Amino acid sequence: MDALKNIILTGKAIHSELTDDLKPPEEGLHAKTQSVINMSLVRGTRGYIERIANQVNGAYENGWYDAAAVMLRRLIETLIIEAFEKHSIADRIKNPAGDFFFLRDLINATLAEATWNLGRNTKQALPKLKDIGDKSAHSRRYVAHRSDIEQLVPDVRTVVQELLFLAGLK
After folding, report:
1. For 98, what's the count of Cα atoms within 13 Å in the CB-facing half-sphere?
2. Is the dihedral of CA 114, 115, 116, 122 positive or negative?
3. Considering the chain, what is the average pLDDT of its residues?
4. Which residue from 48, 57, 75, 82 has the fewest beta carbons nearer than 10 Å?
5. Looking at the domain 34-166, which fold is it?
6. Would you say 118 and 110 are in contact if contact means Cβ atoms under 8 Å apart?
7. How far is residue 24's CA from residue 59's CA, in Å, rounded to a whole number?
8. Beta bridge partners of 94
């Protein structure tokens, strides 16, 4: 009976050790591909921007298309805020309580901002990127597919690159 108890305890200890060893690293893994965002676009910007872009790519390569869309949404929000902060006009995208606007209002403010002149392609792409991010984040019955993300990859590049330049990060 003691031998059986020892075997069970040993098994539990091994299981516990293996469980800890098999977990992904604390800060996540590096995506194997750059299918959505070429990392050269964001490399050398800010660590959190690089990590968000990595998560977009990682989610996409694993077939987690809703997660990729939501992370794209987050990246766009972040880059818009960075651009406004760079130009010392962040107060234009905050409510009276000092909180940043939701994405819809961030995009509207970005499109209307006279401090810069957005390219035509960025103006057209921003609402499309918002739409997929919104559907993936907020629609109960919407499930993104690979093609939903694939068709937006050129728009992602255009928007990310322009916002990085406006934010003074490239």
Report:
1. 0
2. negative
3. 94
4. 48
5. Four Helix Bundle (Hemerythrin (Met), subunit A) (1.20.120)
6. yes
7. 14
8. 100
CA gap 114, 20 in Å, rounded: 52
3-class DSSP string for 132-151:
HHHHHHHCCCCCCCHHHHHC
Given CA atoms 111, 71, 103, 98 in this order, what sign does their dihedral have?
negative
CA diameter of the chain:
80
Coil, strand or helix: which one is 48? helix
Of residues 119 and 14, which shows the higher confidence score? 119
Task: At 100, give phi and psi (nearest 5°).
Answer: -65, 150
What is the identity of the amino acid at 143? V
Structure tokens at 120: 């035509």
- The pLDDT assigned to 9 comes to 80
Q: Of residues 24 and 160, which shows the higher confidence score?
A: 160
Residue 132: φ, ψ to 5°: -65, -40
d(CA 51, CA 30): 9
Burial 81-111 (b: 16+ CB within 10 A, else e): bbbbeeeeeeeebeeeeeeebebeebbebbe
Q: How many whole angstroms separate alpha carbon 20 and alpha carbon 126?
A: 41
Domain boundaries, the chain: 34-166
